[in-house]
């Protein structure tokens, strides 16, 4: 136990030394921030700020190890997740590098004490934490968009039927809607306002979200535009199709959850029932069993 405390204290001293080095020196990160995150992110506090400080010295190395292609893919993944908590590409790489450093330090400290079965999983968990967090945020955003899309299209259809053009109706609906879908539509409106065609804008919207409901909406909208179908009727039909598809997905998720619920009930109730039955048998036959013992 004293050896474990010494190793942990040594790891913490290394982390503090890295923080002090960052505070006393400069690493020239302004160029990287300007390339990948031109917007100034708000200053964070707490554990995220600690990760930023720890990961800053190793950020240039992490950027070089990723390479430009992987950084572009990672930036696409962050945009698809809606930039949760205002995270930028640089912030993500910096915090991921900090967690990798912490994972290596604590994993090594536990492994040197013979506790590799704790150190190795801890190092792996810390190293993969940012990717898992980003995947979870992207999945939650996709589910939110799938849920909001039918009602959004219903309101948009009513607004178009009232006589507004598609772009004006979209702007009006976005004014009274929040959430991930409205944010994506505002981005689409900004692209159209700078001269991007409607088709290119909505194709980019579909690629940016990778949502089945959004893909159905964009495909049907572009087909209706090409075939000359009235926009209000097309939006109503698309909303019905998207709502039907969403309901079918919910039913499929419920069907997949039923076996898991049965397994959980069996795993929790069956052992308890067996313990009660065996205990009752042993208590009832305590006298008989005592004679044999």
Automatic annotation (TrEMBL):
Subcellular location(s) per record: Cell membrane
Alphabetized UniProt keyword annotations: Cell membrane, Membrane, Transmembrane, Transmembrane helix
Membrane spanning stretches: 86-109, 115-134, 261-284
Highest taxon above the source species: Bacteria
UniProt membrane topology term: Multi-pass membrane protein
Residue ranges annotated for the Type II secretion system protein GspF domain, each copy included: 152-278
Gene3D superfamilies recorded: Type II secretion system (T2SS), domain F
Annotated ranges, domain DUF5936: 4-124
Pfam families for the chain: DUF5936, T2SSF
Protein's recorded name: Type II secretion system F family protein
Taxonomic lineage of the native organism: Bacteria, Bacillati, Actinomycetota, Actinomycetes, Micrococcales
